[in-house]
């Protein structure tokens, strides 16, 4: 069979199975060095915008070159997975948790599906080697997603898609199989600056650049020290992550409710009042967030965030 036809056929096969497994989009990019992104990453790190996220400065070369993560890598398969919930608890007068953390930790849910996809590829196509990534290694996932045509990088630095907005997870397969690549899509943000204007901590100094050290998600999750007093009164009741820049984005009017039971919130999470959060015990914390990404902050970290959010 002609090589180009085979690359097309294999790509179509993988995309069909990804859809069957529940992934929203599947795009493919040719594996290679991310030359343009190298300068952006270097400047971002030099300006200290990674805050205490020291790991962002590690493995610089691996971050930019997938062949250093998977020997003989030929293709980067990028997949998106919807997590937009039925109910948005942030609209209630209470302390707020980012929507992605309502249900079971996405790392585990999506990794299981990715492993199923790899098994399918190996059984249907043959001896294909590679690795799966769910926000768990030095992979510049948004840049690869843009190259693979899954969406474009918005002014808030998150990936946007015309059909579903931005409330989705990204994951990747880096494999040594040559596949037909997809063309990138154009930027549809236009002159809109709603995400930049809405950020209460001024964490988006310029288009597509987020100063991680000022982002509410960083302050409530990654930062291990006390939250700097300059952010007092600016947290807008967020205690784990933040969705402000996504909530104001016009493209998210196209968000549709996810169909993944694992991402449904614990039944007791709905209706939590500010007082319930303030009086939260470690036992209730463990029960509420048994399988959730919120466990990352640990009980003490969440208590710190709640306490800081109270200070106006």
Automatic annotation (TrEMBL):
One of its GO terms (cellular component) is cytoplasm. Cob(II)alamin binds at residues 63, 135, 159, 170, 217, 242-243. Belongs to the QueG family. TRNA binds at residue 224. This is Epoxyqueuosine reductase. [4Fe-4S] cluster 2 binds at residues 199, 215, 242, 245. GO terms for molecular function: 4 iron, 4 sulfur cluster binding; cobalamin binding; epoxyqueuosine reductase activity; metal ion binding. Binds 2 [4Fe-4S] clusters per monomer. Monomer. Pathway: tRNA modification; tRNA-queuosine biosynthesis. SUPFAM superfamilies: alpha-helical ferredoxin (SSF46548). Catalyzes the conversion of epoxyqueuosine (oQ) to queuosine (Q), which is a hypermodified base found in the wobble positions of tRNA(Asp), tRNA(Asn), tRNA(His) and tRNA(Tyr). It is an enzyme of class 1 (oxidoreductase). Its EC number is 1.17.99.6. The active site is at 135 (proton donor). Residues 177-209 form the 4Fe-4S ferredoxin-type domain. GO terms for biological process: tRNA queuosine(34) biosynthetic process. The gene is queG. It comes from Flammeovirga agarivorans. It catalyses: epoxyqueuosine(34) in tRNA + AH2 = queuosine(34) in tRNA + A + H2O.
């Amino acid at each position: 069979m002609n090589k180009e036809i085979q690359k097309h056929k294999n790509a179509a096969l993988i995309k069909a199975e990804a859809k069957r497994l529940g992934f929203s989009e599947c795009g493919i990019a040719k594996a290679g060095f991310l030359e343009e992104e190298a300068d952006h990453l270097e400047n971002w790190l030099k300006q200290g915008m990674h805050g205490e996220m020291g790991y962002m400065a590690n493995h610089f070369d691996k971050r930019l070159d997938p062949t250093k993560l998977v020997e003989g890598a030929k293709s980067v398969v990028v997949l998106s997975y919807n997590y937009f919930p039925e109910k948005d608890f942030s609209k209630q007068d209470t302390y707020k948790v980012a929507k992605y953390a309502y249900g079971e930790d996405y790392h585990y849910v999506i990794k299981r599906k990715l492993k199923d996809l790899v098994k399918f590829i190996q059984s249907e196509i043959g001896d294909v080697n590679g690795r799966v990534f769910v926000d768990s290694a030095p992979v510049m996932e948004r840049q690869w997603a843009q190259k693979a045509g899954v969406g474009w990088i918005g002014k808030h630095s998150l990936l946007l898609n015309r059909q579903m907005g931005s409330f989705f997870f990204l994951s990747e397969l880096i494999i040594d199989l040559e596949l037909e690549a997809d063309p990138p899509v154009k930027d549809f943000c236009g002159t809109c600056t709603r995400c930049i204007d809405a950020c209460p901590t001024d964490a988006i100094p310029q288009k597509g650049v987020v100063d991680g050290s000022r982002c509410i998600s960083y302050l409530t999750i990654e930062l291990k020290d006390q939250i700097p007093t300059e952010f007092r009164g600016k947290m807008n009741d967020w205690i784990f992550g933040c969705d402000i820049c996504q909530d104001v984005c016009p493209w998210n009017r196209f968000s549709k409710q996810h169909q993944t039971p694992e991402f449904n919130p614990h039944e007791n999470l709905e209706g939590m009042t500010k007082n319930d959060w303030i009086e939260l015990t470690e036992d209730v914390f463990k029960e509420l967030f048994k399988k959730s990404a919120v466990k990352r902050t640990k009980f003490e970290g969440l208590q710190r965030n709640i306490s800081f959010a109270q200070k106006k």
